Amino acid sequence: MKKTVNLTAILLLLATLLVACRSTAVSSQSSSESTEGKKTITVGFSQLGAESDWRSTNTESMLTALSEENGYTLIYKNGQQKQANQITALRMFIQQDVDYIVLAPETETGWDFVLQEAKDAGIPVIIVDRRVDVTDRSLYTCWVGSDFELEGQKMAAWIHDYTTMQNIAPEDIHIVHIQGTLGSTAQLGRTRGLTNAVREYGWDLLAQESGDFTEVRGKEVMAEFLRQYDNINIVYCENDNEAIGAIEAIEAAGKKVGSNIAAGEIMVVSFDGINEKAMDYLKEGKISCIAECNPLHGPRVQDLIEMIEAGETPAKYNYVNETLFSSVSEIKQVTVDGKSYEVTLVN
Ligand code: GYE
């Protein structure tokens, strides 16, 4: 009897051991499966268009960061400069039940309905670059981009410091202003930066018109300004592509671009600092100052998604630090609202 009990106990022990071994094997197999077959994160990215070098660099940055190697399935849609296309893209992402929506909006208004639909579907939305103006801010999780008004303020401060140093009286500063896409955050901020300075310093703002952030329109608008005014001495372009177009128009009209206003040169300033041709123009002195606007938001958006995935709450507004580029060596820094910003010398 004793023997039987012992045998049963041994058999039971063996069986338990076997089961234990098996379950370890199963669990180790399933965990390796889960690392190899790790769930990818599906992101729908609605880009507004392809109007500038800034935009193409931005798109590339997003596609590289949200790539398959990094664990993403990216559905990319180019809105071709039309908000209606972007809204359609967002609705498609909602139907496809993506994990995240990333939106680079063309203009600020008109997003309330579609963002409400995304919220109702439980899809977090990350806004990148320009902003959305919605009544309920909980319609998006967070935003990452530049402080466009600060860019404009820094540029205005640079113009003020430089012209003061050159002993040019405010009323002798005759500016034409080629704006970006009207209603976009980049346009609104950069325009505010200039118009506030015009009011503060008493500069002569001759004309304002949108060049839609493109080279072609920048050239057309500048040609038109040159036909209307013969005293232009500063051109404030809201991006480098417009500046390149404007320079073409100025040179075609037989005038010279440069920072020597007293000698009759037309001074061109702009924004971005990503376009190679514009950076060459800066070195040559054809563009006098460029306020940097950084387009490399891909890794930033990736970080935000990873934070949310980890259960953290990212800051609502995430700003990127930026500099001013200039080949005019005399101005080493500018001050805005009591804070000083260095000018990066490019030559
Ligand atoms: O400056 C311009 C682009 O929104 C910051 O859009 C962006 C602007 C950028 O087309 O080149």
Describe the 3D structure.
The chain is an alpha/beta fold. It folds into two domains: 41-146 and 295-319, Response regulator (Rossmann fold, 3-Layer(aba) Sandwich); 148-293 and 323-345, 3-Layer(aba) Sandwich (Rossmann fold). Helices cover 44% and strands 20% of the residues. It has helices spanning 2-36, 53-65, 83-95, 112-120, 148-165, 185-201, 215-228, 240-252, 276-284, 298-309; strands at 41-47, 72-78, 100-103, 125-128, 142-145, 174-179, 204-210, 234-237, 267-272, 289-292, 317-319, 324-326, 333-336, 339-345. The strands form two sheets. It has an eight-stranded mixed sheet, sandwiched between helices. Helix 2 (53-65) packs parallel to helix 10 (298-309), helix 3 (83-95) packs parallel to helix 4 (112-120) and helix 5 (148-165) packs parallel to helix 6 (185-201). The radius of gyration is 28 Å and the shape is elongated. Mean pLDDT is 92; it is low at 1-5 and 10-35. Beta-D-fucofuranose is lined by residues 51-52, 54-55, 129-130, 184, 186, 213, 239, 271-272, 293.
